[in-house]
Amino acid sequence: MVLAELGTSISRALQQMSNATIIDEKVLNECLNEITRALLQADVQFKLVRDMQTNIKKIVNLDDLAAGHNKRRIIQQAIFNELCKMLDPGKPSFTPKKGKPSIVMFVGLQGSGKTTTCTKYAYYHQKKGWKPALVCADTFRAGAFDQLKQNAAKAKIPFYGSYTESDPVKIAVEGVERSKKENCDLIIVDTSGRHKQEAALFEEMRQVSEATKPDLVIFVMDSSIGQAAFDQAQAFKQSVAVGAVIVTKMDGHAKGGGALSAVAATKSPVIFIGTGEHMDDFQVFDVKPFVSRLLG
Ligand code: GDP
Fold first, then answer.
1. Tell me: the pLDDT tens digits for 1-24?
2. 152-192 confidence digits (pLDDT tens)
3. For residue 227, is pLDDT > 80?
4. Cβ(283) – ligand 1 distance below 6 Å
5. pLDDT tens figures, 55-107
């Protein structure tokens, strides 16, 4: 189920409730069950959905609502708030400041879109007046450096990497030092991915993080991974201090629910979404407009 379908299903459930002559326990339950089904189909984690349902029922106590109350509005507002709560961990992520060097480390599985996203992130900030630099500390995937180098050159962003050095920690540290000397204020470190979560990857991430002391670690997640999102995001969070999430491939047949699960697992906000393969296919993520669109 793509995001648009999730939105349609939720709006349909709300519409059905609005059409009912009297809003009683049965109508509310039917509406909530419909929304639950839609969220589960969109790959939101089961526990999150169940908690949401319980919270809404607590908020919307039909017996206590006097006759004059607009029950439909109260229910719709509760659903809106609960969806926002799922996507809002309650604290903003670290935001880099122009002119003051910040180090941002990207982590994620191979194929998640990490390298592409590093360049998009750099390009986005460059357009806003930052002076970004890209450091390729991915020594695991053959071709990673060339890919980053090509993307960086296209966007005229300074980059650092090596064809011969196999120690990612060394490259990361040297790249950060060099970028600082060149007065770059947004130093982006692309780290290695693996096909699956494995100890070697997490150990390498920890070492690069310890050596470069990033101001922000961004976890990049492919939106199409479905129900695996929660566990994957949690595994990364347990290894490094993930502070923000970027969800990629939202243009495809993405099951947007993964984004909700990743926020819950990392207690970090989604800050951008990737919506295509090009440098410009990148959008700032705002919770309220996103949920408003979902609810139609
Ligand atoms: P990495 O292994 O995590 O560094 O992944 P890459 O950056 O190499 O991306 C893997 C593939 O996903 C490439 O073909 C990218 O062009 C593609 N990709 C990355 N982000 C997006 C996105 O937002 N939408 C689409 N459609 N493709 C993307």
1. 456 677 788 888 888 888 888 888
2. 999 999 999 999 989 999 999 999 999 999 999 999 999 99
3. no
4. no
5. 998 888 777 766 656 778 888 889 899 989 888 888 899 999 999 999 999 99
Task: Give the distance (Å) from ligand 1 centre to CA of residue 10.
Answer: 30
The SS3 of residue 219 is: strand
Determine the distance separating the centroid of ligand 1 and the alpha carbon of 116, expressed in angstroms: 6
Q: In whole angstroms, what is the distance from residue 229 CA to residue 232 CA?
A: 5
Structural tokens at position 131: 């002076």
Pocket test for ligand 1, best of 2, 273, 277 (most atoms within 8 A of CB): 277
Nearest CA to ligand 1 atom 5: 113
User: Which residue blocks in the chain are alpha helix, DSSP H?
Assistant: 3-19, 25-41, 46-59, 71-87, 114-127, 144-154, 168-181, 199-212, 229-239, 257-266, 287-295
Q: Give the angle 285-289-291 at the CA atoms, nearest 5°.
A: 95
- Token readout for 183 is 């007065």
State the burial class of residue 283 (Cβ atoms within 10 Å of its Cβ: 0-12, 13-18, 19+): middle
| Beta carbon of 248 within 6 Å of any ligand 1 atom | yes
- pLDDT of 245 strictly over 60: yes
HSE-up of 140 (CA within 13 Å, CB side)? Answer: 17
Planar angle of CA 189, 193, 101, nearest 5 degrees: 10
Give residue 286 CA to ligand 1 midpoint distance, Å. 22
Q: Alpha-carbon distance 223 to 213, whole Å? A: 28
Nearest-10 crossing angle of helices 71-87, 3-19: 160
Write the CB contacts of 172 (distance below 8 Å, at least 6 apart in sequence).
135, 137, 189, 191, 208, 211, 212
Residue 140 Cβ < 6 Å to ligand 1: no
Q: Please tell me the pTM assigned to this model.
A: 0.89
